[in-house]
Design goal:
Distance between the termini of chain B: 33 Å
Structural class of chain B: alpha/beta
Largest sheet of chain A: 8 strands, mixed
Strand content of chain B: 25-35%
Number of helices of chain A: 13
Helix content of chain B: 25-40%
Shape of chain B: globular
Order of helices and strands of chain A: EEEHEEHEHHHHHHEHEHEEHHEEH
Structural class of chain A: alpha/beta
Distance between the termini of chain A: 36 Å
Number of strands of chain B: 12
Largest sheet of chain B: 8 strands, mixed
Radius of gyration of chain A: 22 Å
Oligomer: heterodimer
Radius of gyration of chain B: 21 Å
Chain lengths: 347, 324
């Protein structure tokens, strides 16, 4: 059986006036059906670009310049524009950080969720027709409306039949994000990409949304990718986690192992540098240096200028391969390659 | 002999209402109760952490203390001086004793000024004339925030987020203030740089003997930085305690919920208190206890009676009807 999603050596670059920004530079990862993967990384690590690449939503000056994205065994990068439109929303859906900018302010929440349903399920005609049908309360439109209410109710919006007619500005931030999740799940996609879905929300609202996503995940069995800079959020929802740094995947592991025994020096340093509850009295260690400039990344491993295990002559010259060090755990670091094998890699 | 801790700053029933105007003559129709009766003191040499969700009034409280906002009601004392009653010239003198850093260093640095001038500007404003002394002070403070002397000739856009925040810290500290306001100083800094900035602020507080008001929405950061912590909700303080007490033995239902809501890296599915609903509007806050609309332990008393902010044990204040 082929994997749900298989990314091979994906390269997405932004061609800016100042130079080529290698936002995603050779990322490979796979996902099974119903699996949840968290992608963690700092701003500029390429995690969002990776998410957008999967849906082919990268905007100019960005372009996918290499690699393959196999979705259910077929290469998404070879799909036509129309085929892509059918995949987006129906098979792969995405939620962004800021629901306000993804919702149209002049249509009601119900209309917008209904539109997603009608477009992808081909049950009724386009927006205008749907509006007319709804106006005269015809059966097909009623069917859509019922579906909309059902979804809204499922995402925890009380009084769904009334709130369906509200405009986005009448919803609070948390409710808007609920509506976005409702919209994304309305067509029961096989894969849901959530890009920092709770970053703009307050802690207590974030807890509500995470709880909701957990429930929906159980119910719909949708595979999802959660992109976040917050390792706590990812731990709450995902089983597997991928750590990105400066356009590269550093480590792919299950959540438990990652926190118990981080393999990559970056992951290790990062875990020691995050303030967590219970940190009073202790001193956080910090990672020296700064994030590399992606227009002119360092030669070799992108993390080597900040790495305490740096092997001179190797880490600063060659790019480490992304290899399996334990079953299910992949790391790109020369630390895990025995000296004897280094020569075998052609170094 | 135990010396009573001395207060540097005392806030007494501070209120700040922002008017909402409407109609053709721009009459004040209602107001946003951003801060609605906040009383606390900041002791000399301590770091006071102020935590709460967006819109709870924590930033406004900070701005009132450093004089960027005028309180609608209440008194603020700085070293025993009532800020509302002293002359403008004295206020300026006092302001030299206060430094501030904010969330977004990109916004607080003038893009056309070189870093040297950015840091030196507060000295110019305070009327220092001797140029070599000023240059020396700039170099000294640069060293303190661990930046190379060569940075004085650079422009803000040449710096990374972390470096910009360092410059902002240098600028805040160039006048040798006694008090530092740090309002969400790491929110716009990258995760791997955050601990550098936190440790730097912590070290400088110690080294320079600063008193600090540290504002953040992040409870883990507040725990790391503070000696005492105040929790705000909808314009009011709901709990105030030394950091150990607050985190180990929270007494207010809101503090309890906040602490339980934080997703912890590497952990999952612990029993969490999920609060229902959202924070009510500060334009028309609920009667009685402000938290009652979301409180899991709400009783009839809570809608009628405003809970008093009282001392439940030494140094531990709570505003909750459950505890009184």
């Amino acid at each position: 059986m082929s994997k749900l999603l298989e990314i091979r050596d994906l390269k997405t670059y932004y061609f800016t006036r100042d130079g080529v920004v290698k936002a995603v530079d050779g990322v490979s990862l796979g996902m099974e059906k119903g699996e949840n993967l968290g992608i963690a990384g700092e701003s500029g690590s390429g995690k969002s670009t990776l998410g957008l690449s999967i849906l082919r939503l990268v905007r100019t000056p960005g372009r996918i310049v290499g690699g393959e994205i196999l979705f259910k065994g077929e290469d998404i990068l070879k799909k036509s524009y129309d085929e892509m439109r059918r995949i987006r929303g129906a098979e792969i859906s995405i939620i962004f950080q800021d629901p306000t900018s993804s919702l149209n302010p002049v249509y009601t929440i119900g209309d917008q969720i209904g539109e997603a349903i009608t477009l992808h399920q081909h049950k009724v005609g386009g927006g205008m027709l749907n509006w007319l049908l709804g106006r005269f309360n015809l059966s097909r439109a009623r069917e859509v409306n019922e579906k909309v209410e059902e979804i809204l109710r499922e995402t925890g919006i009380s009084d769904a039949s009334k709130r369906r007619g509200d405009y986005p500005h009448q919803f609070s931030g948390g409710m808007r994000q609920r509506a976005m999740i409702a919209m994304a799940l309305s067509c029961t996609p096989d894969l849901l990409i959530a890009d920092e879905p709770t970053t703009n929300l307050d802690v207590t609202i974030e807890a509500q949304i995470l709880e909701l996503m957990k429930e929906l995940q159980k119910e719909f069995d949708t595979a999802f990718i959660l992109i976040s800079h917050n390792l706590g959020t990812i731990s709450e929802l995902c089983d597997k986690i991928a750590i990105m740094y400066a356009g590269n995947l550093m480590e792919l592991s299950d959540i438990k192992t990652l926190f118990e025994s981080p393999k990559h020096p970056y992951t290790e340093a990062l875990l020691e540098a995050i303030p967590r509850l219970g940190s009073r009295g202790k001193r956080l260690s910090s990672i020296p240096g700064d994030i590399p400039d992606l227009i002119d990344p360092p030669q070799g491993c992108n993390f080597h200028p900040r790495c305490k295990y740096m092997i001179d002559g190797i880490c600063n010259r060659y790019t480490p391969p992304f290899i399996e060090v334990e079953p299910g755990i992949k790391v790109s670091c020369f630390k895990y390659i025995p000296k004897s094998e280094l020569s075998g890699l052609g170094l | 002999m135990i010396k009573k801790p001395e207060s540097l700053i005392e806030l007494e029933n501070i209120k700040k209402y922002f008017p909402i105007r409407g109609g053709i003559i721009s009459k004040v129709v209602s107001s946003v109760h951003a801060v609605d009766g906040v009383t606390f003191n900041i002791r000399k040499g301590e770091t006071f952490g102020l935590v709460g969700e967006s819109g709870c009034g924590k930033t406004t409280t900070g701005r009132i203390i450093i004089g960027l906002e005028k309180a609608t009601e209440g008194t603020i004392m700085f070293e025993g001086l009532d800020l509302n009653r002293i002359a403008e010239s004295e206020v300026r003198e006092l302001r030299r004793k206060m430094g501030a850093i904010f969330q977004d260093p990109h916004l607080s640095l003038d893009p056309r000024m070189r870093i040297g001038s950015v840091i030196r500007e507060p000295l110019d404003i305070q009327g220092f004339v001797n140029k070599s002394e000023k240059d020396e002070a700039v170099l000294k403070i640069l060293e303190k925030v661990r930046l190379e002397p060569s940075y004085i000739n650079r422009f803000p856009h040449e710096l990374s987020g972390g470096e910009k925040q360092r410059v902002a810290i240098a600028r805040a500290l160039i006048n040798n203030p006694e008090f530092l306001l740090a309002d969400e100083p790491i929110s716009s800094v990258d995760v791997s740089i955050r601990s550098q900035i936190l440790n730097l602020i912590k070290d400088l507080i110690e080294e320079l003997g600063l008193t600090c008001l540290f504002i953040s929405h992040d409870l883990s950061v507040i725990e790391y930085m503070s000696d005492r912590v105040g929790v705000m909700y909808l314009g009011r303080l709901v709990e105030l305690a030394p950091v150990e007490t607050l985190y180990d033995n929270p007494q207010h239902p809101y503090t309890e919920a906040l602490l339980s809501a934080i997703p912890v890296p590497g952990e999952r599915s612990k029993e969490r208190i999920i609060l229902k609903g959202v924070v009510p509007s500060p334009i028309n806050p609920p009667s009685g206890c402000r938290f009652r609309t979301r409180c899991p332990y709400v009783s009839i008393k809570c809608s009628k009676e405003e809970p008093k902010f009282f001392e439940i044990e030494k140094d531990h204040l709570v505003a909750c009807n459950l505890r009184s």
